[in-house]
Amino acid sequence: MKKILIVFGTRPEAIKMAPVVGVLKHSKYFRPVVAVTAQHREMLDQVLELFGIVPDYDLDIMRPRQTLFEVTVRALQGLEKVLQEAGPDLVLVHGDTTTTFVGALSAFYFQIPVGHVEAGLRTGNKYAPFPEEMNRRLTAALADLHFAPTARAAEALKREGIDPEKIFVTGNTVIDALQAVVREDYQFTDGRLYRFLEEGKRVILVTTHRRENWGEPLRQVYRALRRVVEQFEDVAVVFPVHRNPVVREAAEEIFAGLNRVHLLEPLPYADFANLMARSYLVLTDSGGLQEEAPSLGKPVLVLREVTERPEALEAGTVRLVGTAEERVFGEVVRLLTDEAAYYRMASAVNPYGDGQASRRILEALLYHFGQGPRPEPFSPKVLASTSFCAPAQNSSGGEEE
């Protein structure tokens, strides 16, 4: 059996790699070995438990207020020992984190082939998103197999000189994970979520964490949301707040005293995904939610100036709104008051996956090792979205509190 070392370190990576671990476990040809850097700790552990993944190696590198230098050094030193002991035939990394780049670099130092899941996403600006854009580009330079989620991502790789024979269009594995956990009869582990949903308000789900948004950009976003809640009595904000103190302190200050803004600890993935399925609208600076929310029929306002996921913009499932207070406020109000604009976004076709990305990655690995044909590439179709709550029809603004 070929030994595949799967390296990841954050919650988003774990979510997207869990389906890959699953298909490899059931393969007769591969033996998966999981190494986590734990660049994130508690949020990562939630996903590992949900998907029943017990890491073979856990570097546990996370420290309070850690810098990129510290994460890079600790991950590199830890993975040296893992690779020496595990001796894999191929290393799989995912996406755009520091763990991703360091995992690929470590494998390169041992002259072990690298497969890059979710390859080819680009903004063209090396500082946005930071440091993710360069993590992706550097990983691409080191990778031997490139699992691009879309045809557009594959074309970006080809423009950079990547051999087309080494590129496989698979769809995004996050859709595989989402389909595994979102259910109409789902029982939330956090009982407060039932209360938020049963109040009959239109729920705006919010996440923020990007380094380039720390400081005044985040404060402007939060002030815009405060104004929205004050103006619309039928709106509530549910905000699982990132554990980073920079994010937390700004949110707690600006939303103080608003009883329809619910600041929560980060939610378990299954709770979060099922809450998203029942929300009205998503505001985020995350990359992954630009892929997940459209699969659930939820419009996404992206709190960034650029995105490495232009397919969503072209499809109309997301809109870039930046972080300026007036722009954010205006775009949220538009979707709360313009029913036609809302439904244009909610009903657009999601270009990111059909739930079969992990199978295509398995088939691509079999092809690479001479054990099967080249898999057919993913091509977007009209996919049925999963939506468990009809958006409220009342779009009139409320009085200020």
Automatic annotation (TrEMBL):
Listed name of the protein: UDP-N-acetylglucosamine 2-epimerase (non-hydrolyzing)
UniProt keyword Isomerase, yes or no:
yes
UDP-N-acetylglucosamine 2-epimerase domain boundaries: 24-365
Under Pfam families, the record lists: Epimerase_2
**Has the keyword Isomerase been applied to this entry?**
yes
Which CDD domains did the record assign? GTB_UDP-GlcNAc_2-Epimerase
Record the organism.
Ammonifex degensii (strain DSM 10501 / KC4)
Taxonomically, the superkingdom here is Bacteria
